[in-house]
């Protein structure tokens, strides 16, 4: 009896993940047919090994079909929830259609992924990062993600620590975000908006649970979500929103969430990049002598296929920067930080460096266009690793523009994005005071 029970369980359990995968394949395609029949050799081997009767084969087929159906329905349900969640996470573009918030009942939360403060924090940071199913997906990841994360942390932590050591023994992102939070709070105060401003990270403190608890202790009814990722992606802003809402559901379900409008084309934000680029040009030099490579963080190609607007918004930002610079030639967009075997957005920075040097360009200026703070992707990857790669290719002058950090234009963009969602001032006196605050705050 036991061999028959084992065979039934094997046929059933093996086919659940196969049905899950099959549901994502075009019907009657080769892949679809493959995942229907993939378990047959294994089930036959198990039957022969256990010595069960061939008359039991129809029963084994029945349990295999049940497993396929359960896996398929599981994937269908998961996909439906994912699609609904993705639509809910995409920030509103037009603030005119949004419900206006009472600032006295609102906490503005700046969103970012975070980073390890010191080398000792690297393992915990990486563990949270690699176990995030929104950020990292691969076939059967729902079964093997924790194992995958453990392997990466085990075998990559020492290498990651060495990289962080090159930039001071940890990520500066906490201090940078803290300063941006203070600058935004002060800018809003200059405009007459006395509102709480805090920040939240996904993979290092303050984590979403800490953020929601802070909002609850302050007695605020609304959270205004303002991403420090100017260009929307499900993997960045989307995951920040997801985990904050998940924490709120468990800790403070009464709180209401509102997304601030996008600012990736805001004049102040664009001006911040223009200024940072021009800062790299010394007296007597010309920006025209440098080939510009705009370097946003990469994303897996499936994000683009699923309708993620990230790459298109990056292109719009770059176009506006180039317009303000008066530049029409000698520039490219290339993506950095690709990891793993999946296809990522291309071209990569390495490929672009090889291409432009083959065409004879020896003076390069790299602009990390998707980053608002300097951290390991800029200070180590762009300014150290890509520099070494470029020098081997024969680049004579390699430069990187600094992150916009607390540039007045960027802080103004954040403040305008937040203020667009607040209720208008109610009296002429308050309006006049607000205008005075704006005039003072507009000067760097």
Description:
The chain has 16 helices and 8 strands. The chain is of the alpha/beta class and 444 residues long. The protein has 3 domains: 2-89, no CATH class; 95-263 and 407-441, Rossmann fold, CATH 3.40.50; 267-400, 3-Layer(aba) Sandwich (Rossmann fold), CATH 3.40.50. It has a 4-stranded parallel sheet, sandwiched between helices. Helix 1 (2-22) packs antiparallel against helix 3 and helix 10 (267-279) crosses helix 12 (310-325).
Fold blueprint:
Elements: H1 2-22, H2 30-37, H3 40-50, H4 57-89, E1 106-112, H5 122-130, H6 141-166, H7 173-190, E2 196-201, H8 208-218, E3 222-227, H9 234-251, E4 256-259, H10 267-279, E5 291-294, H11 301-305, H12 310-325, E6 331-333, H13 349-358, E7 363-367, H14 376-392, E8 397-400, H15 408-419, H16 428-441
Helix pairs in contact: 1-2, 1-3, 1-4, 5-6, 7-15, 8-9, 10-12, 10-15
